[in-house]
Design goal:
The protein has helices spanning 16-27, 70-79, and strands at 9-13, 30-33, 38-42, 48-52, 63-66, 83-91, 94-100, 106-111. The protein is an alpha/beta fold. α1 (16-27) packs antiparallel against α2 (70-79).
Length: 112
Amino acid sequence: MESNHINYLELYAKDLEAVKTFYSKAFGWTFTDYGPTYTAFSNSGLEGGFEKTGKAIINGALVVLYHKDLEGIKDKVIACGGKISVDIFSFPGGRRFQFIDPSGNELAVWSE
């Protein structure tokens, strides 16, 4: 394991089952439950987890995922219950969109 590299990511979720269903269907992630208030995810490129919370979720960081088919994954995100918060736009080096997951987390997906 390398020092100074991102190694794990934790996010909050109000409904662990809904967030697991969303990410497994939309992106193929797998989950391991650690009790009733935590689930870890893998097969995402970076391992992490969701902690159940009843508090308002305030996103302090924008997590950016990569996908080779931006339009296709956008359609899949919508079909799985995600809401587009910023539609596809270009930036130097690629294009991306942002979405809100079922727990209120905002993430982005980019492609070349």
